[in-house]
Amino acid sequence: MRLLTLTDFGVTRRKRDILRGVNLSVGTGELVGIIGPNGAGKTTLMRAALGLIDCIGHSSICALSPRERGRAVAWMPQSREIAWPVDVETLVMLGRTPHFVTGQRPRDEDLAAVARAMQRMDLTEFKGRTAMRLSGGEQARVLIARALAQETPLLMADEPIAGLDPAHQIATMRSFVDLARDGHSVIVSLHDLGLAARHCARLIVIDKGGIAADGPPRDVLTPALVRGTFGIRAYLESTPDGFVFQPLEVVA
Amino acid sequence: MTRLALLLSTLVLALFIAALVVGPADIGIYQSLKALFVDDEGPMTLVMREVRLPRALLAVMIGGSLGLAGAAMQGYLRNPLADPGLIGVSGSAALAAVLAIQTGLAASFAFGLPLSALAGALIGVFLVLVLAGPRGSSLTLILAGIAISALAGAFTSLVLNLSPNPFAANEIVFWMMGSLADKSMTHVWVALPLIVLGALMLATMARGLDALTLGEDAAEAMGIGLRRIRLTLIFGTAAVVGASTAVAGAIGFVGLVVPHLLRPFVGARPSRLLWASAFGGAAMLLAADIAVRAILPARDLKLGVVTALVGAPLFLHLIYLTRREGL
């Protein structure tokens, strides 16, 4: 089953092609990392695929009604907005919004989904705390939990692990791996290529408005691509501990 | 939660009864309430049914409207400083009312003033919609609202400036301060349909406002139609605030202070704040209208003056509290 299909997909803004000729599809049980330099179009690709900005070509998610989309895919934007001093549990419960009918109160299954999401993100002890007063990294975990509570087949997150401490970065990537193992799919954009290489089964490199490479980390992160796309030289090695990627220096 | 609902509704009920029994006509509490329900074919029933009842009903309707619209506006804009007047509806309604007073339309037939104020509100909404568009960020709505308010304010000043008739100018100034004095049941019937319609529209925004806590992008991806919620907000606010301004003039600070005051008691959830602010607004306006009659009964103290005098220091206090919490 395909959870996301983009065909001849592109985005044009102010008469400039931001993205063009994108073709990709994501099935079930995949953890896909979207990588690329700043301004390459990672966020634009994800927002356009969701139908949040105008696009050309076909996206399978755009074709859904807003309500169906809310049940098919959860989206965690890059800007971590929390407008009001609500408590953590209430905020995570917002993820259940697409599952409610007008005027409905949370059912047992909603409460269970919220509890599972908070467990996954190690937030159980924060339940009653005011989300706005948490640290930036803790807020990020709350917002990831919100997206997890939506319990959709596909989760898309824009730089979810930026600003998290190493333990929570790894734990978050592990919970995405677990989700993929359970048959969900996760598409995350991230800048930490080391974490991307270790945890994602598939990497999509966005560069200059198109897909520069798409495949398993070992095939994608070649010295030539790392040099051409990111302008860096890196240490890449398969070790007994898994694939290790460490950026070393900037190349001209 | 339910305790708050009980508390607020009891408060509104108590103030409503108090508003019915306070007035220049010296009637006892029991007598006045009896005269309201049992027609004594004398002046007491007339005073109760034609003077005090409409006044108290309008205080509930208008206070509730302003509180509800304020909570909806703050929720949509995710800004605790937003006010229902922000989208320019009250400004344009006031301008039309001022024109009606100046041209004599208000004097020539009984509902000239409220009806032209409603027309003004409608034109104001139309202009804001044209300027801000049905899509786009909340920022464009704020900017369009400020522009329309400023323009309406400038024209209002122009009318006052060039007014050849000092009596009309005087009447305009007093009208703009906002008051519930000398209102009849007919005013209630003019305002009621629009206020009910607008309040129902604003009530449908509850879930969308909650989702907007996470920002526009996240809310839209959860299936909240931003376009629909924006139009609902504009038309709902226009209906309740337009009708309120048309009947009672410009009454400030209720829509700003009441949601701010009640936010901590509803766990800051925008959906719960909607109904809580409606009750809170009704209570505040009832209390202010009682104060108007109790403090200076002979001097026709204006309601809008009292709400501003009470509201502004309250607001300063809230800002101080917010600052101390470091938010």
Counting DSSP H or I runs of 4 or more residues, the number of helices of chain B is: 15
Distance from N terminus to C terminus of chain B (CA atoms, Å) equals 24 Å
CATH class category name of chain A = Alpha Beta
Number of domains of chain B: 1
For the sheet with most strands of chain B, the description reads: none
Number of helices of chain A: 9
Quaternary structure: heterodimer
Write down the secondary-structure element order of chain A.
EEEHEHEHHHEHEHEEHHEE
Give a structural overview.
The complex is a heterodimer of chains A (252) and B (327). By secondary structure, chain A is of the alpha/beta class. Chain A has helices at residues 42-50, 66-72, 88-93, 108-120, 136-149, 166-181, 193-199, 217-220, 223-230, and strands at residues 2-13, 16-27, 31-35, 56-59, 73-76, 154-158, 185-189, 202-207, 210-215, 232-239, 242-250. Chain A contains nine helices and eleven strands. Chain A has a six-stranded mixed sheet with strand order 5-6-7-3-8-9, with helices on both faces. In chain A, strands 2-1-4 form a three-stranded antiparallel sheet, with helices on one face. In chain A, strands 10-11 form a two-stranded antiparallel sheet. In chain A, strand 6 (154-158), helix 6 and strand 7 form a beta-alpha-beta unit. The radius of gyration of chain A is 18 Å and the shape is globular. The model of chain A has no long low-confidence stretch (mean pLDDT 91). By secondary structure, chain B is mainly alpha-helical. Chain B is built from 15 helices and no strands. Chain B starts with a helix and ends with a helix. The model of chain B has no long low-confidence stretch (mean pLDDT 88). Chains A and B meet through helix 2 and strand 5 of A and helix 10 and helix 11 of B.
